[in-house]
């Protein structure tokens, strides 16, 4: 990697990060930011060279993500996989370890952006929503824990949502997200439970979420055009902050990006790590429970 590409802020040099759902949106942004911090990123999604026919989101491929990383001077490997398929999950992890030498950081980002009212939600959509936002993150985490233990360190980062907090009116109200929100709430509790289990093994488990929402290809159909969203760079910077300290110093954190950046004076860089973004404060209408939730974390002993 060229010396000029070294980013400001935490260094992930020498680490391998596996980022799911990285063909577009938040996953792509996190992969770019981790690469700019020096990590070798292994990016995965269903779409390798072209969008998957019949997929929920039609744009973005892993090749495009890899090309963006490499154009900026970073290193990336693309491995296509359907995370709903157990054989694909096993093959993904085997290939990631074989091609990259191991996994230091797992980012559970892949998701399914389809909402439905509880009364009429099809059983198949119920199962897929729980799969994407709870069961698959658990199974991938379970699978990487043994080799993280063998390496003596590890970081698991789950992507959360403000929807996991109590329903609100105004900007915070989204109808039809009940099962999604409940799954994200379960993911937050899973994060803190795994943090408690794994701290002694120096495996940090944290959750990051937007303070409002990030406008991505996957969310374009459920985020109104006039909804005030936040820059994805804030979320990527928060994820980076969760991916470098030992578990004895930071684990079990539920971090909402704009709030976390404001409360910790986090410097937010562009995805290539070269520029500093202007400081932005969380909006006044942000969910009032965020401030409390973001301070609740597992307190244990290394």
Automatic annotation (TrEMBL):
Record Pfam families: adh_short
Species for this entry: Caenibius tardaugens NBRC 16725
SUPFAM superfamilies: NAD(P)-binding Rossmann-fold domains
GO terms of biological process kind: monocarboxylic acid metabolic process
Family label: Belongs to the short-chain dehydrogenases/reductases (SDR) family.
Protein origin, superkingdom: Bacteria
InterPro entries according to UniProt: NAD(P)-bd_dom_sf, Sc_DH/Rdtase_CS, SDR, SDR_fam
Record protein name field: Putative oxidoreductase
């Amino acid at each position: 990697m060229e010396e000029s590409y070294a980013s400001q802020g935490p260094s992930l040099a020498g680490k391998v990060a596996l980022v799911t759902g990285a063909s577009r949106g938040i996953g792509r942004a996190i992969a770019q930011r981790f690469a700019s911090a020096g990590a070798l990123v292994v990016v995965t999604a269903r779409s390798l060279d072209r969008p998957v026919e019949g997929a929920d989101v039609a744009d973005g491929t892993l090749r495009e993500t890899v090309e963006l990383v490499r154009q900026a001077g970073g290193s990336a490997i693309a491995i296509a996989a359907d995370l709903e398929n157990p054989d694909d999950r096993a093959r993904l992890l085997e290939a990631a370890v074989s091609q990259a030498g191991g996994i230091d950081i797992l980012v559970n980002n892949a998701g399914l952006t389809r909402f439905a009212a509880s009364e009429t939600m099809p059983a198949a959509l119920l199962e897929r929503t729980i799969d994407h936002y709870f069961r698959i993150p658990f199974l991938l985490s379970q699978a990487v824990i043994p080799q993280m233990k063998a390496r003596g360190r590890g970081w698991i980062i789950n992507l959360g949502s403000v929807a996991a907090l109590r329903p609100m009116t105004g900007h915070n109200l989204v109808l039809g997200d009940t099962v999604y929100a409940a799954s994200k709430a379960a993911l937050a509790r899973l994060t803190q439970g795994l943090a408690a289990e794994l701290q002694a093994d120096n495996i940090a488990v944290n959750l990051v979420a937007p303070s409002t929402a990030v406008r991505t290809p996957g969310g374009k159909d459920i985020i109104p055009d006039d909804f005030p969203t936040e820059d994805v760079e804030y979320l990527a910077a928060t994820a980076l902050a969760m991916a470098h300290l030992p578990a004895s110093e930071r684990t079990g954190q539920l971090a909402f990006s704009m709030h976390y950046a404001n409360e910790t004076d986090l410097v937010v860089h562009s995805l290539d790590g070269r520029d500093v973004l202007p400081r932005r404060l969380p909006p006044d209408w942000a969910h009032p429970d965020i401030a409390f939730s973001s301070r609740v974390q597992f307190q244990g002993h290394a």
